[in-house]
User: What shape does this take?
Amino acid sequence: MHTSYVLTYYPVFTSKHKALSGKTSLLFVVEKSYNLVGSMDEILKELDAEKAQITVSTEIRRFNKPVTIVQGLQDNKDVLSITKNLKNKIGTGGTFKEGKIMLQGNHKGEVVNLLMAFGFDEKIIAIR
Assistant: This one.
């Protein structure tokens, strides 16, 4: 998909102000235009990739314990099995609550590698 920009201009007549009465102004509008090259599947994948964003971060909770938080998977229908697989592969406790996967400990690197192994694209995974 190629992105281009289209510049259009519209004449605007201003007759309310005495100094500008009878004169014409131009309003310029810049719009984003999409040239649809490729199949519809490629376009849908690109749009889904723009919308989907998985964030992996670490927070310090009670008793100075680190917790790895994975956000952005709440719309995925397999989020509970992803949570279970992450817990089993890493060997730690955790849960899925309030739209977030919470794993005990600091496992950011391992979580990113496992998510890529599960089929998620590296471009949509952000580490904070």
In short: Residues 49-127 form a domain with the Translation Initiation Factor Eif1 fold (CATH 3.30.780.10). The chain has three helices and seven strands. The CA atoms of residues 4 and 33 lie 5 Å apart. The radius of gyration is 25 Å.
